[in-house]
Design brief:
The longest helix is centred in the middle third of the chain and has 29 residues, at 70-98. The chain is mainly alpha-helical. The protein contains five helices and no strands. Helix content is 81%, strand content 0%.
Length: 130
């Protein structure tokens, strides 16, 4: 094996990362991982927010009133977008893995994006305008 120093290993890693040609499937993979991390962070925040129940009804109601602010409404919309993309892309992955979907993965991905945008727009209407 070649003797790799830490700096040469790191510089080679950066070179591969910069020169890596990202395809549509690669971006879907990256977005799937990012949305998964976002959902994991949300679950932790949700559990922390529910600890307000331990402080009594008044503290919990005050916390819930804070969640109706525009900032938290936007966060709720963003969370919905994360959930929708992650779920739809998960269905796409299942179709590719279990069927003969590998031949049509780009078309399925475009369908996922279109349905995701439509559902996110509908959710924006329900959250902000309705």
């Amino acid at each position: 094996m070649a003797n790799l120093t830490t700096s040469s290993f790191f510089s080679r890693w950066v070179e591969v990362l910069i020169n890596y040609r990202k395809h549509t499937g690669s971006w879907a993979w990256i977005l799937h991982r990012i949305t998964g991390l976002g959902l994991t962070i949300y679950i932790m925040m949700h559990i922390i927010a529910l600890t307000g129940l331990l402080k009594g009804e008044g503290a919990f109601n005050a916390e819930m009133a804070m969640f109706k602010s525009p900032f938290f409404l936007f966060g709720e919309w963003l969370l919905g977008a994360l959930v929708m993309f992650h779920a739809l892309n998960g269905i796409r992955i299942a179709l590719i893995d279990f069927g003969n979907g590998a031949r049509f993965h780009k078309e399925i991905l475009v369908f996922v994006y279109l349905i995701g945008v439509l559902m996110t727009a509908g959710m924006a209407y329900l959250i902000f305008l309705h």
